[in-house]
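Following up on my earlier thread - several people asked me to post the actual chain instead of describing it. Fair enough. Here it is, all 530 residues.
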Amino acid sequence: MTEQLFYVFGGIGMFLMGMKVMTSALREAVGSRLQAILTRFTTTPFSGVISGGLTTAAIQSSSATTVMTVGFVGAGLLTMPQALGVIYGANIGTTATGWLVSLLGFKLKLGTVAMALLFPASLLDLLARGGWARAGRMVAGLCLLLIGLDLMQAGMKDVSGFLHPDMLPSGSLLGLLALAALGAGLTLVMQSSSAAMALALVMIQSGTISLTQAVAIVAGMNIGTTCTALLASLGGSLPMRQTAVANLLFNIATSLMLVPVLLFGLGALQELADRTDAMTAILVFHTGFNLVGAMVFVPITARFAKFISWLLPEAPKQTVVDLDRALLSDPDMALLAVQSALEMLTHQAYRAMAAALQEPADYRGIAALGPCHAGLAEVEAFLADIRLTADHEKQEAALSALLHQTDHLVRLLDRLTQTGRISVLIEDSLLRRPALITGAALRWLIVAAPSKSAGQARLRRISALVNLRKDRHRRALLLGEHAGLYDLSEVFGHTDAMRWLSRSLHHLERLEHYRNEVAALLPASRPVPE
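Reply from S.P.:
Thanks for posting it. Predicted structure:
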């Protein structure tokens, strides 16, 4: 008996290790595209469900998807309502693991093949580089997973002689709740709903638990898997905690669907088990109630988000930028948070400058930029505390680009305080046109959100025009002063205004350059503030 239990626990450990290795390799292979999917295709709850489901199916881990989503909310790349769709989809995507395990481990019984493949896959991981090494890790992880499943089956085969369904509660509501708590506890201890599901499949296949008991245990697993996201949100910002609590409440509500199944649908489920097998029936139940849960919640996502906001109300913001220090533990998330903050500050500066460079000039936006200076100071302090992963060139390049972007934004905000220069530009008949063109270009950048280097190229052309006019106008002013047409103060005033516009355009062009560079290195969508 003790030896068989060792087989079971050893199999669980090997399954967990295999799942971790495979999931890590899959995440590395998908890479930045995973971030792009989660942050770009979540405009509606339905699209969030699709992206969350595909992402979870791709990396074989709903916990990883949910934790990543919570991190994106903390970084300001997703709002809490947008994240809800991803959470719904992650629950659906995680059911793919159960079907994969059932097919490869139980139907095809590839445990022996996995033993043979483990050695070459491990060698490929150790000796190869890049994509081939990742492929080796993926295959090695899958092999460990299947071998662990075989060990669990071998151990549970003899354990079923000592442990049988009559020893576990099943008839009463309290008994079923106890089994649901057992499922949640197993998932919490293993930190993997996939491993807990695999154990449940092994137990039902060996006859250790009945179909009714498996239904309750599987429903409880959906609740247990939320603990990882809850832990990730501790110490984080309020939107992160709201998202984690929403994930918990959604999974509790979805798991409660086992009650109508037990009351009205157990006969149909048992009939399906008789026609196929108990494992297939449980997998259909698992997939079905997660699909139904998403279908029920998608139409009421806005009201659900309002309820979560009421449950965990947001305190008034003290600063225009609220960078979550908890994100510093993950350099990628920290860099994304800075990118999001800088985008917001950049758009505020663009709007203020565009309003000033028009007829009639409106300086109210510039007067309201005071909090942006404090926000940039917070960004600079946050950037100084980011500790990059060793040998991660992309992170280093992104950090450098963000530092340059911050520096140019600081310099631009300083120039925007010199409103006297703007009034001189608007009043000068020769300088008015390039100033107004600059304002129009900024409005175009805000509204059109041009891709790649279109904005940078337009600003460069305007800068060349301004520099050409500046040189001509300076000579004309000097000649006019010599002829007595202008006094010296007018010459200096106009010269300073031209220099102001030229330097401001330089900062704008460099801002667009570094924004594009950061967007290429951190390919999450560029958030545009309301």
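The mean pLDDT is 83. That should answer part of your original question.
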